[in-house]
């Protein structure tokens, strides 16, 4: 009886281990946790709103204190740690709190940061100079681990079957005929279960990501480098996207806005530009495309009535049932453009930095602190002056901070019509 069911029990155990291992790896996927919680303010090797994170375990020297800092930075400062105090005073932006993260999840994030491939700078003058760094993807690793464990399970089952038959031959017990794999009900059942699990996983993942365009980088009619304009030349975002401060939409600048500068600037003399594929771009030729759209000839008087709109390809889109107001975030919330759009001042070609999912937005509302107006110093935002109870709780020490969620930022009607 034990011999008859030993192979099936072993098979079930191995299958369970494979599925559990696969699920556990995904549950503790440090990359996904990093992107969901940290990427809006931190990069691994470069400074963003917050400092570069690689080497943080060595810098802190105490995992417990580091975990406490991530969960609640003010509690870490309250321990008397000089390093925590130094970190709290070294940055103008306040560190968000992540009390909902478990120690296992924080460890997974730290492990991912410490082991992620280092960013490689492109070789000067090389054909790939200016090309984006290739993003790592753990899906292949998960697939290899799963396939390896499945092969191991089959090998162990085969060995177990051979040993069983040898023992039966030694005991004089007649052995059952060996069936081909495609006729063996056990193997067929395992294959069916694995297919069902994989199908369900990829179906659910595809359904969740439906309509999201993270990493979307369409080719534009004119090569416009935000790195040159917003980065090198320090042109304020609001000069071109004035609607971000005044209304719901950020607005795409008209040809007239471009021509305010390019009536005088007809030649590009900056560093060599490259597309995402590493192809060289002639900056002067791109300015000529702007002139063609504007109906302008350099050295002659310009008639704005001859201008025609440039057909820019829209990158960031939200579903029709989602309400998002740029001015409320930029003016009232004091949210920086880079929080949602990434390091736009370093992009030659713009891509969608975040997936703009409901979970991503809700997480931001849960961790972003409200900047209440302080009448004594004049700092903060008067938009939130009506929340007198929270003002009093902050003054009395009952609360150390108030997040957007606390003032109703996660209520359904805030974002949905």
Give a structural overview:
The protein is an all-alpha fold and 417 residues long. The chain folds into four domains: 94 residues, no CATH class; 86 residues, Cytochrome c-like domain (Cytochrome Bc1 Complex, Chain D, domain 2); 130 residues, no CATH class; 61 residues, no CATH class. Helices cover 49% and strands 1% of the residues. The protein has a two-stranded antiparallel ribbon with strand order 1-2. Strand 1 and strand 2 form a beta hairpin. Helix 1 runs antiparallel to helix 8, helix 2 crosses helix 7 and helix 13 packs across helix 14. The longest helix has 33 residues. The N terminus is likely disordered. It holds the Pfam family Cytochrom_C.
Which terms summarize this structure?
Cytochrome Bc1 Complex, Chain D, domain 2; mainly alpha; 417 residues; disordered N terminus; two-stranded antiparallel ribbon; signal
The computed structural class is: mainly alpha
- Overall structural domain count: 4
Distance between the termini: 64 Å
Series of secondary-structure elements, N-terminal to C-terminal: HHHHHHHHHHHHHEEHHHHHH
The radius of gyration computed from the alpha-carbon positions, rounded to a whole number of angstroms, is 29 Å
- What's the pLDDT, averaged over the residues? 82
Instruction: Let me know the largest β-sheet.
Output: 2 strands, antiparallel
Furnish the topology, listing elements before pairings.
Layout lengths: L1 H26 L2 H8 L18 H5 L2 H9 L1 H6 L3 H9 L12 H13 L23 H33 L13 H24 L17 H7 L4 H4 L2 H4 L8 H8 L10 E2 L5 E2 L1 H12 L31 H7 L4 H5 L16 H10 L20 H9 L15 H4 L2
Antiparallel strand pairs: 1-2
């Amino acid at each position: 009886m034990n011999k008859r069911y030993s192979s099936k029990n072993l098979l079930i155990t191995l299958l369970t281990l494979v599925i559990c291992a696969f699920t556990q790896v995904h549950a503790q996927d440090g990359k996904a946790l990093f992107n969901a919680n940290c990427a809006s303010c931190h990069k691994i090797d470069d400074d963003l709103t917050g400092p570069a994170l690689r080497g943080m375990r060595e810098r802190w020297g105490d995992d417990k204190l580091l975990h406490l800092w991530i969960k609640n930075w003010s509690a870490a400062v309250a321990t008397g740690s000089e390093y925590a105090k130094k970190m709290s005073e070294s940055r103008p932006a306040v560190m968000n709190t992540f009390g909902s993260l478990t120690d296992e999840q924080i460890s997974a994030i730290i492990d991912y940061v410490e082991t992620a491939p280092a960013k490689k700078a492109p070789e000067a003058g090389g054909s790939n100079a200016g090309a984006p760094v290739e993003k790592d993807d753990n899906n292949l690793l998960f697939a290899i681990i799963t396939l390896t464990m499945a092969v191991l399970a089959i090998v162990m089952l085969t060995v177990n079957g051979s040993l069983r038959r040898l023992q039966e031959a030694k005991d004089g017990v007649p052995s059952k005929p060996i069936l081909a794999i495609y006729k063996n009900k056990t193997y067929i059942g395992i294959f069916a279960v694995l297919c069902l699990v994989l199908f369900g996983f990829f179906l659910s993942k595809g359904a969740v990501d439906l309509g999201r365009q993270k990493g979307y980088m369409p080719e534009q009619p004119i090569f416009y480098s935000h790195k040159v304009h917003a980065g090198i030349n320090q042109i304020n975002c609001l000069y071109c996207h004035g609607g971000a401060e005044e209304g719901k939409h950020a607005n795409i600048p008209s040809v007239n806005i471009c021509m305010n500068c390019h009536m005088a600037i007809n030649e590009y003399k900056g560093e060599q530009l490259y597309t995402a594929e590493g192809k060289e771009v002639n900056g002067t030729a791109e300015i000529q495309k702007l002139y063609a759209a504007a109906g302008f000839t350099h050295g002659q008087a310009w008639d704005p009535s001859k201008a025609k709109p440039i057909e820019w390809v829209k990158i960031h889109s939200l579903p029709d049932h989602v309400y998002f107001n740029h001015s409320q975030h930029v003016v009232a919330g004091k949210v920086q453009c880079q929080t949602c759009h990434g390091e736009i001042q370093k992009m030659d070609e713009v891509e969608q930095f975040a997936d703009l999912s409901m979970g991503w937005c809700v997480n931001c509302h849960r961790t972003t602190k409200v900047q209440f107006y302080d009448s004594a110093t004049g700092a903060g935002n008067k938009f939130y002056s009506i929340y007198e109870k929270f003002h009093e709780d902050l003054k009395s020490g009952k609360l150390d901070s108030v997040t957007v969620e606390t003032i109703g930022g996660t209520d359904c009607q805030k974002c949905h019509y």
